């Protein structure tokens, strides 16, 4: 830690390319009522933070990004009793961000204790955003039923690698992934998919009860065509950066299809207790070995490199940033 009141954080001083990210000294945040502060060990690196940095999401500058962390409880605010200082935790910091720092504050509802679990802090930092999202998207939004078929895009990526496995844990039948590049097929297959196809062959994939799209653009339209009657398309990202695709409401009416949206930040703000329960479910699944995460670690000072790699679309699994790694 830098001094008694200051800490090191990576900030977004202005919107722009990855090079705008800066290592700064900023004030250590204090927890308010119902909140905890966490001494951060690792911070997950996510597409969401790239969007903050580009200014796609309007945030007040300078801004400390970082929607998920692992670490140890540092202090608790009024009304928080069970999360005592020193306990190892994973946490969503997605409502106010701030995880690319030595200390972050978040709601006690959005914390998963790790004591007694067989889970490294590096892996634990990779779970709060993507693994929690995977369970919520399939269970709460798509309302998946046992035996139903699922199609997931970008299946080798951070959230894609969790969706296939979560579908399995929730009792799905056929689980198919798509990838943008032949080279990712093998990686995606290791994340529990029955089949993995290159996305330009989507038309041959058959019909699905649930399709999860975080790629957007032409993939979104093609995903709607892959829905079986009573099928549900969940829209949860636009990694391709394509222009928005309109949903043809009359087509939904005539074909018995549903399109839903999911955003973990808005969900966590509106339903923090439910988001926390989903986080703890993901943490337990990972600790038991039924949810596998492929993690690569970079030091926090190389956050810009992590962003460039995420933007290149070539990464598989998850990048985490070591802040005060044990
Ligand atoms: N709604 C939510 O709450 C929520 C939660 C988590 C993630 N997400 C979204 O899900 C998406 C993936 O997130 P992630 O953390 O899994 O990221 P990631 O691991 O970096 O995966 C992104 C993947 O998108 C595909 N992609 C297609 N076009 C791309 C382009 N032009 N640039 C970069 N990637 C491109 C690539 O896979 P292929 O090579 O297979 O095409 C890439 O690996 C993002 O849009 C993110 O915002 C949303």
Structure characterization notes:
This protein has 326 residues and is an alpha/beta fold. It is globular and about 60 Å long. Helices cover 28% and strands 26% of the residues. Helix 6 (218-225) links the parallel strand 11 (208-213) and strand 12 (227-235). The protein has helices at residues 47-54, 121-124, 130-141, 158-169, 185-189, 218-225, 249-255, 264-270, 272-288, 303-312, and strands at 6-11, 22-27, 35-45, 68-76, 88-92, 103-107, 111-113, 150-152, 175-179, 195-198, 208-213, 227-235, 258-261, 295-299, 318-322. The protein has ten helices and 15 strands. The strands form three sheets. Strands 3, 4, 5, 6, 7, 14 and 15 form a seven-stranded mixed sheet that branches. Helix 3 packs across helix 4 (158-169). The longest helix has 17 residues, at 272-288. The chain has two domains: 6-126 and 293-322, Medium-chain alcohol dehydrogenases, catalytic domain (Quinone Oxidoreductase, Chain A, domain 1, Alpha-Beta Complex); 130-264, Rossmann fold. It binds NADP nicotinamide-adenine-dinucleotide phosphate (NAP). The site of NADP nicotinamide-adenine-dinucleotide phosphate (NAP) has 31 residues, from helix 1, helix 3, helix 4 and helix 10.
Radius of gyration: 19 Å
Q: From the 3D coordinates, which CATH architecture of the largest domain would you assign?
A: Alpha-Beta Complex
- The tally of domains stands at 2
Query: Which blocks of ≥5 consecutive residues have pLDDT under 50?
Result: none
Shape: globular
CATH homologous superfamily label of the largest domain: Medium-chain alcohol dehydrogenases, catalytic domain
